[in-house]
Specification:
The structure is a homodimer.
Chain A lengths: L5 E3 L5 E3 L2 H24 L22 H18 L3 H17 L9 H5 L12 H19 L3 H19 L13 H12 L2 H13 L33 H18 L2 H17 L31 H17 L3 H17 L15 E2 L1 H9 L22 H10 L6 E4 L2 E4 L5 E7 L2 E9 L6 E6 L3 E8 L7 E5 L2 E3 L7 E8 L4 E6 L3 E6 L9 E6 L2 E6 L12 E2 L5 E8 L2 E13 L6 E2 L5 E10 L11 E2 L1 E4 L1
Parallel strand pairs in A: 5-9, 17-23
Antiparallel strand pairs in A: 1-4, 2-6, 3-22, 4-5, 6-7, 7-8, 8-13, 9-12, 10-11, 10-13, 14-15, 15-16, 15-23, 16-21, 16-22, 18-19, 19-21
InterPro entries (chains A, B): 6-hairpin_glycosidase_sf (IPR008928), Beta-AFase-like (IPR049174), Beta-AFase-like_GH127_C (IPR049049), Beta-AFase-like_GH127_cat (IPR012878), Beta-AFase-like_GH127_middle (IPR049046)
Pfam families (chains A, B): Beta-AFase-like_GH127_cat, Glyco_hydro127C, Glyco_hydro127M
Keywords (chains A, B): Hydrolase
Chain lengths: 626, 626
C-alpha cells in the first residue's frame, strides 16, 4: 500500500445486487426520489427556477432553494446512471432547461437574488449563494455522468467561472469566503472531472482564505466559529460551529490535502477527525449536539433528549471519512462512516421512504413533547419531533438522503497503488481499475445483519486485497479459497497479497455478537448506562414494543444473553433483539427511602435507524447497567 | 384538636434564641438587610418612589419596583419588631414619606404608571400593579406592627380602597383579575388586621372571578394557564403556570377556605398540594421545573441541570403549607415547608448573606456554562448561573429572603381549639395565646443539625401539645418529664393532652440517620440514582471537595455507612458527610465495550443549601446507586 495516493472507486463501478442496500436503493428509487420531487414541486422550489416570482405571489424563493433542487437532481441522476428512465430524465431536463433559460448572461444563478433582492448578489456571505453553487456543480457532474448531457454542467461551469472571477481574481464581492461551506469540495470535484486547474485554485483559495479575512462577516446572532472562520483552517484543531458546514469544509480540506499531499493540512484533517470521534460524536454517529446553531458544542457533551444530530451532518461525516480513507489506510474511517450511515443517516428516513427526520435524538419522552406542544409559542422549547414529516421548510436532508443512498456504492472500495481496500461491506458486483488492470469482484453479504462476507474474483493478477476488520469486531475468520489465513489486522486491515486467479474466493466471517458499551466517565448523560450494538447497528427500545414501560428505568446486565431474531418492523424485515431486563415496579411515592422492587421482563430492541415508524412512543438508547 | 379553626402563631410571639436560625437571622440582620437596601438604592428603586424620573434619565422605574421596596420594608420591619433600630427605621420612614408624598390623591401608587405610562393605569393585567399593591399592604402591616407608625398602612389602605372601587364596585379597570397574584393573600391579611370586611370581599372577588372573565388577557407569549386563569379556581386540580403566581394564589385560596370553611375550596387546596408534592416538586422542595415561563410543567418532569426552582417559588410553597396546616392537622404540610425552607430557599442566599440565586438547579456542569458563556447571544441557552450575585434586574428573591428569614418564627407553632401544634423546630422562646390562656414555651434544639428537641413549659393549664414527627423520621422517642410516652403519630402528630405544670419538660428525639432516596420510576432524570438526606437537609457533592471527580459517575451503595462530622464551609459550621463511594477510572475511549474499572474513594457531601459558596465547581444531588 502506498500512502498519499488513495483513489476513490465510484459507485458507478459497482452494482448493488442484493442485501441491505438493495432494499434501501429500491425503496429510494421507487418512493423517495418521487416523494421528494413532489414535495418540492408543491412548495414552489421548481417553479422558483423560472424566476417569475413577484411580490405578493405565494412561495417566495428562498436563498437556499437551488441547493434543494440540485441535490435532488444529483440523487436522481445517481439512479439514472444505473438505469435510464425517460420520465425521470424528462423531469430533470425540464429543470435544467429552466436554469439554462434563467441563468444570468454573466453566469449568476440564484432565484432569490434575481427576483427578490437582485441588488444583494454576493453581498452577504451568510446567504448561501456559494453553497447553492456547490450543489449545482455536484448535481451537474452527476447528471452529465448519468446521461451524457452536458447542458447542466455548462450552466455550473459558467457560474463557477463567474465566482472564480468575482472572488479569486477581482475580489469584487463584499466578502471573501462563504458562510456555508460546500463549494470547496464541489470545486475539487469539478477540477477532477474537467481537469480545469482554475477550479482547483478557487477551491484552494476559499479554503486558505477562510479565517483570514476581515471582510467576512457573520450573522448578527452567530460568530465566526459558527461558520468555521474563527481561525485559519490549519489552526483549527477542534470541530466547531454548524456541524454540516464544518464537515463539508473538512471534506474539502481533505480533498485538498490528498491533492497537494500537504503534511500540515493532512495532520489537521486527522486531528479534526479525532476530536470528533473521540470527543464529539454520539454512539449513533450523530454530530452537532445542539439545536442552537445546529452546532458542535464541547467535549463529552451528549444530551440525549435534545440531541440535534442533523441527518445532513452525519451524511457529511461519512463524506469526510470517505476522503480520509484515501489519505491513509486506517479502518477507523470506514468504522465511523458506517456508524453514521447505519444509524443516524438512515434514522433520517422512514421505512416507508417518504418521510424524514432532520434531528435524530437519542431518547424521546412523548410526555415532554405533548406538554411542549400545548405551550404558547413564547414558552416552547426546541424539541426534536416524534414522527417523520414529508418536507421541511429547510428541507436539505431529504434530497441529501436520496443522493447518499443513490451513490452508496461509493463506500464500497478504494484503491491505493496496487491495493484494493474493501472499506464498507455491501452485496455488490464491482469492476474497478487498479494500476492499469481491470478487476471484477463479486461481493456477497447480508451485512450489517450478518457478519459473513465473501468475494469472488472474476479477474486475475498480482495485487493486494485489503480486508477491513471493523473496530467493533473482536474475532474475525478469514479464508482464501477455503483455507484459513491469519486475520490479524494492521490499523483495521488485513492485507492479502498474491497472484489472484479468476474464481478465487475470499471469505470473511466477522463475529457479530451483541455488545454493551459504556460512555466515557466525563459524559454526564451516560454514566451508569449502557448502549446495545450488534455489528455497526446501534439498538434502541421503543415503548410500543415494551408495554410502555418507563424505558429510562430499564436495567440490562452486562452478562445478559440476547436473543437475535428476524422480525418485521413496519413491514420491513430486520434483526431485532430480546433480552431479560429488569425495571422497578410502578410506585406512587414521588421519592422513596426504600430501594424499589425490581421486576424482570423481556426487553425488545430494534435497530436505531428503524425507530419512530409505528406512531408516537417513548424511545431510548442508553439503558441502566446492572 | 378542632378542624377548621387553626390559628397562626406569629413570629412576633417568639424569639429565636440560638441554633440554626439564630445564625441565619443574625447574618440577615447584619448583612442581608443592608446589602439589599444598598443594591436597591444603587439601582434607583428607592429614587423611583420620588416619581421625578423623566425620559432620558437613567434607571427608568420598572412596573414591579414597588414590590421590591415594600418587600424589603416588610423584611426589615420584622427585624425592627424584634429590636428597634433608629437608623433602619429612619431609612424606612424616608421611603414611606416618599410614598405618602407621591401617592395620587385617589390612592394610586406605582412609579412606572405615574412617570412612564400614566395613561396605562389598570389597563394591562399582566403589568404587576396589583402584585405591587399586595406587597405594599404586607409591608405596611409589618411596619405598623414593628413601630406602631400607621402612615404606610394609611397609604396601603387608601390604595386598597381605590382598587376595591375600581375593580369590585365599578369594574372600571380594563381587566378583572391580576396577571400576577399576591394581592389576594395580602387583602386577607389586611382584612384580618383591620377587621374591614371590604378587604375580605375584594380578596374573595379576585379569587372567585379568576378564570371566569373574558376581559382578562395574557401576554402575547403566554397563555391563561401561565397566570392561573385557564379555569375557575375551584376547577384547578393541577398546579399550572408561573410557579410563584400559582403558589401566591393557592395561599390566598387557603386563606379564603380557612375563613369561609368552604369544603370545595379546601378540597381544591389539598388537591393542589398533593399534585405538587406527589408529582411536581424536586426533592429539594424546588418547584417550577422550567425557565420558560418560570413555570410548573408536567408530572414527574425534573430536569436537573436546567431546574429553574426559583427561590421565591419555594418561599411561596412554604407560605401555602403554613396556611394549609391551619386548615387541617397533618404533618405533611410542615414536612413540605421544611423541605422548601432548608434546601431551596436557603440555597437562594450565600453563606456570606449578600449574594443570591434566583434559580436553584439540582446539578451544574461548569463546562456547559463555560461553553454557553462563550456563545454569541443568539446561540446561548438559558442556564442557571454558577455563582450568586448581589442583585438581579428582576430582584424579587433577595427581599423575599429577608422577610422569610425575619419572620421564620411564623413556622414554629399553630393552634387549633385547645391544641398547640409544634410545626417546625427551632430554638426559640414563645408566648402564645390558647383559648384565652397565655402559654410560654422554651424550645431548645440544634435542629436541623441534630434530632433532639426539648420544650420547657413556663405556664400551666390543661391543653394538648401536638408534637410533629417528620415524614422522613423512622423512629422517634418522646419523653414527658423524663418518662417515655408512646410516640405513635396520627397524620404526623403525637398528641399529648394533660394538665401541664410550670416546668414540665417534653423531650423529643428524632432518629436522624442519613438516608438514601430514589425517585419515582416515571422520573426520567433520577432512574438508577439516589439522593442523600439527613433530617430535612438534602445533601449534595461539589467538585471542590472531591478532586473534581466527575460527580455524575459517582456510585453510592444503598448500605453505605456515612460519617457525620461538623465542618466549616466558607466559614460556616455545618454537618457534612463522608462516605466510601466509587467511580470509574478515567478513560480515553469515548465508548468502550468493557465495563469500566471502578475505584473506591471517599465522597464528601455538604448540605445542598450551602453549595456554590467556594467558587465555580461541579455540583450534583443525584448519584448512581450501587
Amino acid at each position: 500500500m502506498e500512502k498519499w495516493s488513495g483513489k476513490p472507486v465510484s459507485f458507478a463501478d459497482s452494482t448493488i445486487i442484493g442485501g441491505f442496500w438493495k432494499t434501501e436503493q429500491d425503496l429510494c428509487r421507487k418512493v423517495t426520489v418521487n416523494a421528494v420531487y413532489d414535495r418540492f414541486e408543491e412548495t414552489g422550489r421548481f417553479e422558483a427556477l423560472k424566476m417569475q416570482w413577484k411580490k405578493g405571489m405565494p412561495n417566495q424563493p428562498h436563498i437556499f432553494w437551488e441547493s434543494d433542487v440540485t441535490k435532488w437532481i444529483e440523487g436522481a441522476a445517481y439512479f439514472l446512471k444505473k438505469e435510464r428512465d425517460p420520465e425521470l430524465e424528462a423531469k430533470i431536463d425540464e429543470l435544467v432547461g429552466r436554469m439554462e433559460r434563467t441563468q444570468d448572461t454573466n453566469g449568476y444563478l440564484n432565484a432569490y437574488f434575481t427576483v427578490v433582492e437582485p441588488k444583494a448578489r454576493f453581498t452577504r456571505r451568510t446567504d448561501h449563494e456559494l453553497y447553492c453553487a456547490g450543489h449545482l456543480i455536484e448535481g451537474a457532474i452527476a447528471y452529465k455522468e448519468a446521461t451524457g448531457k452536458d447542458n447542466m454542467l455548462r450552466v455550473a461551469m459558467k457560474y463557477a467561472d463567474l465566482i472564480d472571477r468575482v472572488f479569486r481574481v477581482e475580489h469584487s464581492a463584499a466578502f471573501d469566503t462563504p458562510g456555508h461551506e460546500e463549494i470547496e469540495l464541489a470545486l475539487m470535484k469539478l477540477y477532477h472531472y474537467t481537469g480545469e486547474e482554475r477550479y482547483f485554485k478557487l477551491a484552494e483559495y476559499f479554503i486558505n482564505t477562510r479565517g483570514t479575512s476581515d471582510r467576512d462577516e457573520t450573522y448578527s446572532f452567530t460568530d465566526q466559529e459558527h461558520m468555521q472562520s474563527h481561525l485559519p483552517v490549519r489552526e483549527q484543531v477542534t470541530a466547531e460551529g454548524h456541524s454540516v458546514r464544518a464537515l463539508y469544509l473538512y471534506s474539502g480540506m481533505a480533498d485538498l490535502a490528498l491533492e497537494t499531499k500537504e503534511e500540515k493540512l493532512t495532520e489537521i484533517c486527522r486531528t479534526l477527525f479525532e476530536n470528533i470521534t473521540e470527543k464529539r460524536m454520539y454512539i449513533t454517529g450523530g454530530v452537532g449536539s445542539t439545536c442552537r446553531g445546529e452546532s458542535f458544542t464541547f467535549d463529552y457533551d451528549f444530551p440525549e433528549y435534545t440531541a440535534y444530530n442533523e441527518t445532513c451532518a452525519s451524511i457529511a461525516l461519512a463524506l469526510f471519512c470517505r476522503r480520509l480513507w484515501l489519505i491513509e489506510a486506517d479502518g477507523r474511517y470506514a468504522d465511523t462512516a458506517e456508524r453514521a450511515l447505519y444509524n443516524t443517516v438512515l434514522s433520517g428516513i422512514s421505512l416507508s421512504g417518504d418521510s424524514f427526520f432532520y434531528e435524530n435524538p437519542l431518547a424521546v419522552d412523548p410526555r415532554r413533547n405533548a406538554f411542549n406542544d400545548s405551550r404558547p409559542e413564547g414558552l416552547k422549547e426546541h424539541l426534536p419531533i416524534l414522527e417523520r414529516v414529508k418536507v421541511f421548510g429547510c428541507s436539505c436532508c431529504p434530497p441529501n438522503l436520496v443522493r447518499t443512498i443513490g451513490s452508496i456504492g461509493d463506500y464500497l472500495y478504494s484503491t491505493a497503488g496496487n491495493t484494493i481496500f474493501a472499506q464498507c461491506y455491501m452485496d455488490a458486483d464491482t469492476t474497478l481499475h487498479l494500476n492499469g488492470k481491470t478487476i471484477t469482484l463479486q461481493e456477497r453479504t447480508e451485512y450489517p445483519c450478518d457478519g459473513k462476507i465473501s468475494w469472488t474474483l472474476k479477474s486475475e493478477g498480482n495485487f493486494t486485497f485489503a480486508v477491513r476488520i471493523p473496530g467493533w469486531c473482536d474475532k474475525a475468520e478469514l479464508l482464501v479459497n477455503g483455507e484459513k489465513v491469519p486475520a490479524a489486522a494492521e490499523k483495521g486491515f488485513v492485507y492479502l497479497e498474491r497472484d489472484w486467479k479468476d474464481g478465487d474466493r475470499i471469505e470473511l466471517e466477522l463475529e457479530m455478537k451483541v455488545k454493551l458499551w459504556e460512555g466515557n466517565p466525563e459524559i454526564v448523560d451516560t454514566c451508569g448506562r449502557v448502549a446495545v450494538t450488534r455489528g455497526p447497528l446501534v439498538y434502541c427500545a421503543e415503548g410500543v414494543d415494551n408495554d410502555d414501560t418507563p424505558l429510562r428505568d430499564v436495567r440490562i446486565d452486562w452478562d445478559a444473553a440476547f436473543e437475535l431474531e428476524k422480525a418485521e418492523v413496519a413491514g420491513r424485515e430486520m434483526p431485532v433483539l430480546k433480552v431479560q431486563a429488569s425495571r422497578r415496579e410502578a410506585s406512587k411515592a414521588l421519592y422513596s427511602d426504600r430501594k424499589g422492587k425490581k421486576v424482570s421482563f423481556q426487553l425488545k430492541l430494534l435497530p436505531y435507524y428503524a425507530w419512530a415508524n409505528r406512531g408516537v412512543t417513548e424511545m431510548d438508547v442508553w439503558f441502566l447497567e446492572k
